[in-house]
Amino acid sequence: MSDYQFETKCIQSGYHPGNSEPRTLPIYQSTTYKYDDADALGQLFDLKAEGHMYSRISNPTLAAVEEKLSDLEGGVGAMLVSSGQAANLLAVFNICSAGQNLIAMNNIYGGTINLLSVTMARMGIEVRYISEKMTDEEVDALFDENTRLVFGETIANPALTVFDISRYAAIAHRHQVPLIVDNTFATPFLCRPFEHGADIVTHSTSKYMDGHANVLGGVVIDGGTFDWETSGKFPELTTPDESYHGVVYTKQFGRAAYVTKARVQLLRDFGCTMAPISAYLLNLGLESMALRVRKHSENALEVAKFLETQPQVLWVNYPKLPSSPYHELAEKYLPDGASGVVSFGVKGGRAAAMKLMNSLRLAQIVVHVADARTCVLHPASTTHRQLTDQQLADSGIGPEFIRFSVGIEDVRDIIADLKQALAQID
Ligand SMILES: *Cc1c(COP(=O)(O)O)cnc(C)c1O
Fold first, then answer.
1. What predicted TM-score, i.e. pTM, was given to this entire model?
2. Of all helices (H) and strands (E), which one includes residue 149?
3. Is the CB of 218 inside a 6 Å radius of any atom of ligand 1?
């Protein structure tokens, strides 16, 4: 980890050119690497030497961006993958196998709910959902000897609830399992979950990290904090891996055991690798991430305050609003802002929500969120369509619910757009 301040790390971390090498991160567009002799390659295959074998597993362009991301979160290592979905799949599957289970917040991203409830069920992994209303004792009661991790989102997409990271870290740790936090909406600029007790952090880098809606990507970052050996519940990390000539990850890789295993075993086998050009574009996004996320957060708070004053608006949800039930948690975990995403409901239910969306001009209807351009979405009819009514209710998404992703345009134009659109549903 470098000693620089966060905004300096966004620019300087990761890529360190030598004498007369390119100043900006090169795109190593090569699947393949060259070795001086056969033995050098053999050492790599036994994980006894450092270097690149094949770009499905690692690549120098990705490695520089991984180092930056790990530095930004304060971790010991990172693994880029092809999407946020791939990041959460590998983060969970790395330490949870058939016959085992995990505990997850019930208001997380709909795509993650599908992954955990449907696809991971087919792999023999069971998910047990918790709600923030449950007491610690009620959560404790869901653990058994096969529970392997706890999962939540710093700012849930799109419920915008704030996850009480230190509370759930304490619960996970008293059951000797790690806490995985999807930190996509917050980004490490607004919240660094490792500082609050999380052990593993994931991101969809497709959102604020890229920030321009250009490239899909995901990352898994290892905090290096969880003691796999003392826990005793993770033989996959603490006993020999026969697919690597008996390497024991905790012995050979110490604090980076988890992320090393995820790379050399799961990225090798699933092949959900990020392309070098995507890593290059992601790095450009990261260079301006701090500036952008600060501006997104300032604009969003102004938009949320404006919406609260509008007669057509039933409710506004933004964690930094004094009226938000998450205000206190937001002050603790998100002191510098709560990202650009605001949700609100309009009077008149689904029909009014649709009319409003159709009336917006600057804010355009897209599936994506969290990029430089203001955009809007109706989750109940789109991203969350596959969820059951109960899952929708758990996620806090009614028919009047609008997800508004505030961009970094001049906020006066964003508010003027909302004003003219709200006038049309009167
Ligand atoms: C978008 C998103 C994902 C999935 O990421 P992709 O890059 O779209 O695969 C996962 N978690 C959260 C919180 C997200 O917002």
1. 0.96
2. strand 147-153
3. yes
The pLDDT score that the predictor gives to residue 244 is 85
Q: Which of 50, 52, 60 is nearest to 34 (CA)?
A: 52
Q: Count of CB atoms within 10 A of residue 240's CB? A: 13
109 ligand 1 Cβ < 6 A? yes
Percent of the chain, pLDDT > 70? 100
**Best mutation site among 82, 83, 109 for ligand 1, i.e. most ligand atoms within 8 A of its Cβ?**
109
How many residues belong to the chain? Answer: 426
Strand 147-153 versus strand 101-105 pairing type: parallel
Task: Indicate the pairing of strand 364-365 with strand 218-222.
Answer: unpaired
Q: Looking at residues 183-197, what average pLDDT do you find?
A: 98
204 lines ligand 1 (CB under 6 A): yes
Q: What is the token pair recorded at 157?
A: 């997409």
Q: Which amino acid is at 177?
A: V
Q: Write down the number of H helices and E strands in the chain.
A: 20, 12
The answer to whether residues 344 and 317 touch, using CB atoms and an 8 Å cutoff, is yes
Q: At 1, is the pLDDT very low, low, confident or very high (cuts 50, 70, 90)?
A: low
